[in-house]
Amino acid sequence: MSTPEDAPRPRGPFPIEPIGWVRSPYQRRFGTPQQAAAAGSEAEAILELDGSRIPTSALTDLEGIERIWILSWLHRGGGWGPMVRTPRSPGAPRGLFATRSPDRPNPIGLSAVTLIRIEDRNLHIRGVDLIDGTPVLDVKPYVPYADAFPHSKAGWIDAIPYDAPQIARRPARVTAR
Length: 177
Description:
Layout lengths: L19 E4 L12 H4 L4 E6 L17 E7 L9 E4 L2 E7 L12 E12 L2 E5 L8 E7 L2 H4 L25 E2 L3
Antiparallel strand pairs: 1-2, 1-8, 2-7, 3-6, 3-8, 4-5, 4-9, 6-7
């Protein structure tokens, strides 16, 4: 392994383009579920893959996979700060990387959704937490033996009851001290 000083450090920009877009019932950030699949949301959406970039053969073998990961670009994000207030912990500012705040240096979203069915290049999904028009960067299968670590510790999040009410407001960024 190289030392940090001599390790190669690729610099951006990186060539990332959407492979599709989400058609969702949610039009604004406010009111869009957070961690929708974990909260039991039944909201349905369609992930429309770009026919000029993605051939239908890319969806071969996806049938029968119950859950998928969607990596997206959170295009309606605001600026970001190193500390944020979250809906589940409104009183205490938290370090950005210890949260799932959508306001990030690179606003990449990660959503675990249920795959309902596939029609041509349209993936019908349930448990969506994405705004209508969200660009999709990639789709990957959820693989339980590799993706689930039920006994992992979640730090400050473990201290909040799972069913604790969330504050229905936009998380506020706070400045570093």
